[in-house]
Amino acid sequence: MYRTSTCGELRISDVGKTVTLAGWVQRSRKLGGMTFIDLRDRYGITQLVVENDLSLGREFVIQATGKVVERESKNPKIPTGDIEIKVESINILNKSLTPPFTIEDQSDGGEDLRAKYRYLDLRRNPLKKALELRHRIAHEVRNYLDAQGFLEIETPYLIKSTPEGARDFVVPSRMNPGQFYALPQSPQTFKQLLMVAGYDRYFQIVRCFRDEDLRADRQPEFTQIDCEMSFVEQEDVLGMFEGMMRSLFKNVLDVDIPNPMPRMSWYDAMDKYGSDKPDVRFGMTIHEISSEVQGHGFGVFDSVPYVGAIAVPGAANYTRKQTDELTEWVKRPQVGAKGLVYIKLNEDGTIKSSVDKFYSEEDLRKVAAAVEAKTGDMILVLCGQKRKAQTMLGVLRVEMGNRLGLRDPKVFAPLWIVDFPLLEWSEEDGRFYAMHHPFTAPKPEHLDWFYSDKKEDLERVCANAYDFVLNGTELGGGSIRIHEADVQERMFQVLGIGKEEAEYKFGFIINAFKFGAPPHGGLAFGFDRTCALFGGQETIRDYIAFPKNNQGRDVMIDAPSKIDAVQMDELCLASTVKEDA
Amino acid sequence: MYRTSTCGELRISDVGKTVTLAGWVQRSRKLGGMTFIDLRDRYGITQLVVENDLSLGREFVIQATGKVVERESKNPKIPTGDIEIKVESINILNKSLTPPFTIEDQSDGGEDLRAKYRYLDLRRNPLKKALELRHRIAHEVRNYLDAQGFLEIETPYLIKSTPEGARDFVVPSRMNPGQFYALPQSPQTFKQLLMVAGYDRYFQIVRCFRDEDLRADRQPEFTQIDCEMSFVEQEDVLGMFEGMMRSLFKNVLDVDIPNPMPRMSWYDAMDKYGSDKPDVRFGMTIHEISSEVQGHGFGVFDSVPYVGAIAVPGAANYTRKQTDELTEWVKRPQVGAKGLVYIKLNEDGTIKSSVDKFYSEEDLRKVAAAVEAKTGDMILVLCGQKRKAQTMLGVLRVEMGNRLGLRDPKVFAPLWIVDFPLLEWSEEDGRFYAMHHPFTAPKPEHLDWFYSDKKEDLERVCANAYDFVLNGTELGGGSIRIHEADVQERMFQVLGIGKEEAEYKFGFIINAFKFGAPPHGGLAFGFDRTCALFGGQETIRDYIAFPKNNQGRDVMIDAPSKIDAVQMDELCLASTVKEDA
User: Fold this and answer.
1) How far apart are CA B16 and CA B73, in angstroms?
2) Which chain A residue's Cα is nearest to B21?
3) Domains assigned to chain A
4) In chain A, at which end, N or C, are there fewer CB atoms within 10 A of the end residue's CB?
């Protein structure tokens, strides 16, 4: 061992001991013939004092032996700040080129440069804390689930391409020319087979893969906490994983979350928050005001099925410039509103709107009452198709929450969203899609509708499905699965998947279900995002040791890259990319 | 919840309680107007008694409610054997087709059939025990390493193809046409980068991938316990992981293993056991007898550099037929000997060999003394090039150990193999290969030889490398890594990897090492095989939930398989497989 102590452990009680430390030179400064060195390792920083002039570059790796002494000028900011090491011998273990950016909490390096030198960026404290937190959460998850009798069972990564959902990454098989494995988008099928196999309580912290056109903060590979249970109903699953999240909050962050955790139906979430992942850290809920505002001659409102509004607290003093800016903001394609109507409840008791010529003060006060607005608030109104308008209001609500500082990352407001619709109709494709996935069970009390041929009946079938939402982010979701072959066949029928296609695509699981599938259900949590939110961050990139960029590239190792012609031949593959491309 | 109790938990103390159980019908028999059902779940089997004739197929999933009563004829073989459930109501949750093989400890199904219906095979007790053991070992590994301050850090699965070692599986990148990711053969590079990044103690239970022509009991995807530490020397790594294995043996199997664990140099292992993974559960070690047998006119021995022998205890009574069979056995290509000489030390005191015309009884007694053979033993002699002959003797030794029942899977004899040669010379390719991998450090005391240009100097350089061997199987191995750029460059030079090639293949890690790489080292354990050996099995397939067959196929889901032409186009790939192929 190159050290007797780490750079984070020595205290005033260690004074007098002779120790050896090893680590990186965080900082080195000469002063009156002495050299002061801040030596850093994973565990902290300790000051070394060398009694001569020493030239050590930043990030040199050194080993130093000396006596622990009390510091004259203590540093209360670090746990080792009461002591320093009076160095007797020093040994340079490795030199370092000057890093291309500073290894400080706030680095001077740009994102691209830090990505290229990820191994240096990872030396910075915020990233170290992020990965330590990730380890801690994974460990707590495993301890909780192990104590509850869950078995962690590894499922294969080289599987078969499945047609539903996003695009698969595929892996050519050299031993089976012309054939491909696929990398799993999730272990969904396998965990259900494990339930058929009688494993009862399964979990896995597992990598998943999706070949999507990457949006910001999406990764082609990501990690899930994947879980499944047998002989359970929805209530059992919610209870089990509420318990898991509660124990994580308590053991990792020392935060108490409500017991029981709040629940909200999907319909309420959409109506009140315009989102199936509502941020309930703040109110400002959406209210429908169609009956209050329609029939007053304002064509915009009269021509749509839905008018809704939120009351933004204390925003009555917004200037014309500010409301104009907000109007432009909602008209951006990301939101997609055609315009924005506002009503200000001024502090002086007056009321003023952008549509005064259509509405009397009394009309506006009725709206204010419907929206539960108070003096000093500004009401923001959007309209259109119901769900679309609600969604826009939801986006606007979150934006106003941000602007008003209502979204404190240190406040945690988890809840379950339940009672999802089972199916979503796609106008474009003229067919139903499964809102969760094709193995999600309809609520037993909705089975009549499920077997109906009418579109409107099918649209109102609710699923035994649930999402875990935290601070406006969906952290997890799942469902009770279909375990009866005839219900599964009906599901494929509703989704327009023919018998032959179903047999080809899902044959093995349909078949498996014929051999005694138990009632079962489960869920999966997005692990990267769970870590980020626990760390008080919105982006996941710092919580992944070696993430890819938005083009799916690892710029540090320069992957993906070309492969040898020999390897292409062995795989019986030819590239159709033009060489100039 | 569909149950109040599992099928494994009810005892005599529960008599009188009303309970609900759910599970699979293991067995159902009618007797005098009653039906007796063995109901099975993950936790055990409980007998149900129904007071009428009931027809339930094997593997039906049922739910039954009734009173716990004391059994008249108790079954001492199962923990629930004192009680049965007097059923009041029964509910068929799902029917089952008749399984294609019996769900018993010894199934009547063939391997292929069981592979196709893996989800049914997994219902059998031996497989359930195997996966439970796997979970338990993984959990203990994590607890031990967490307590030692290790962080589990996930490394990417979509990486860059690396040229050393086995073939990579590759993944075409749709977003980067003509380019490929590779699946990692191990996280070697990343764990070393984590050390450069200062993470100090890293581990990961991680999937690895190798596109090899599959031998029996190899899998294209397999799991490793991958570990790395900074500021350590070989002794620190051995101590840490000896501790891990000791805690696994104790906590999982309640087996005490020696402290400290035995160590053996690679040279001793080859000389005495003819293997770098010696099975030390039994003796029968190899002895060189060149000086005893050469120069007696027996051309076969005189024309080779090495003659070696083992003394097989109690085998002097082997018949001519048996020795003939043994001779044929060593002549098989898998062993590759040209012939076998034997010397029998008969119980009656006589000595008899297959080469009596060249050797006097006194000559033979000298050999017997050299081999430490006792009366009743049979000495088996092979010859040739030293390492080749030793390897053949090693294979023969293990075979004789098997035949004599000396390899009890419930006996555990772990040891470290140390002092490996750093380099292996390939006559075929006329170049050196790294015996472990190109990042393994030479022993500091051998650096002069390492920098020498002479082949014989380079051949005697030892590595700071170590293997963990259990019962004749290499379970793990690792090394202290090269952390100095100039030593790494020399290593590439010795391996015939040119500057440009090294820059192209390993540029990023060579570069990383210029920014302050700490001294570091680590190792990886084969997790699948560790589980199998802990379970007393030699084959890993039962310890993997969904393994592939020897052609790399998952016959249950039928993967790999063809993919759509659309997907091929998106990936800019064309198949060069002829349609008839």
Assistant:
1) 18
2) A231
3) 12-94 (2.40.50.140), 126-258+524-565 (3.30.930.10), 282-403 (3.30.1360.30), 419-465+482-520 (no CATH)
4) C
